[in-house]
Amino acid sequence: MSVEEPLFRVVRGVPTAEELAALVGVIAVRSRPTVRRAPTPASAWTRSGRPAVAALTPGAGAWRNSGLPR
């Protein structure tokens, strides 16, 4: 029979069951590898609300042109 060494131990104090559960939860979350997901492209609806910065130029009619669809 092999005896496994504990992953962690409490060295001071007497934690409650809730405190130990919170500690185990934090350790479990922190030990998982981070999954990197590719960013999702912006939808047409989202892009429509953003001004095309490169297309806007200062001058006559700039304010009116900023509200027109591209």
From TrEMBL:
InterPro entries: ACC_epsilon. It comes from the Bacteria. GO terms for molecular function: acetyl-CoA carboxylase activity; propionyl-CoA carboxylase activity. It holds the Pfam family ACC_epsilon. This is Acyl-CoA carboxylase epsilon subunit. It comes from Micromonospora sediminimaris.
